[in-house]
Amino acid sequence: MRSPWLGPLLYILRRAAMIFLVLLGVCTVTFIVTRLLGNPVYLLVGQQANKEILDNMIHQMGLDRPLYEQYLRYLWAVARGDLGMSRYTFRPVLEDIRLRLPATFELVTAAMWLIVFGGVPLGVLAAARPRGIIARFAQFLSQLGVSMPSFWVGLLLIYFFFFRLHWFPAPLGRLADQIAAPPRVTGLLLVDSLLARDHVAFRSALGHLVLPAVTLALGSVPATLQITRTTLLQVLASDYIRTARAYGMPARAIYFRYALKNVVVPLITVLAMTFGYLMSGTVLVETVFAWPGLGLYAVDAMNHFDYEPIVGVVLLSALFYALAYLVADLVSFAVDPRIRAQ
Asked: Are the CB atoms for 325 and 276 separated by under 8 Å?
């Protein structure tokens, strides 16, 4: 008799193997790119160094070894979490990522809440009344979000809501300068300020978070809205929904018991893609709002020709993408019996 756990276990193992291959491919590409950029020793010691210093540094970094040995050493270092040293902060890249990751994660989480509780209900209402005013507003919002770049949206929000109306604080980080940060527990200022019962820090952190979160969400709401609307319209036009209506089933039961269930799987996939995209695509928003996250860290690294942090951020972005897809696959596996039957 086949064990009921065998199917889910094999499914997880297949997805884990795919994640491993993806990360291996990303590591290989980053290794090739770093070698194509040239010898990093010249960036470390400068062009005025003599040959003795260059040869000594090349030997210390192992660049005089065969290329395949360098590649294996690179993979082993990445597997151990050794992403190198930043020449700008003079700290290990992994330590810099640990300090900055909570800021990006808090920003992306806030944007995801806006996307889920804004884009999904709006897409459902637009599908329920395709010719209504809500559907027209949803179409307008989708076109607006697609046509306007995020940095321009952020600048407009700063101009109107900070400079003209003074509703939100200056876009300079996560807290006001005169407010002390709460004790670091999770790195998420909203959570840490609540744990410390510091309501002043909580209000300041929330005020600084709103505009960048809205800016980040507006660029991704159109995809979620359109997928929800299009999929629900297709489901509502299907035969079994028409049959349910012919039998006089209440509209509420048709929508919530049958129609919305068929929207869940594609919606989960889109939300997973959105989360992965936001985790790796906050560069412009963090730069505009001086948000001290991974995006601003990567920009500072590029400005100082510090490529090892860039490689670290790329690898971390790939990991987030892979994990987001894994979670989406597992949720889809649990929700959709058709996937479990494969």
From this structure: yes
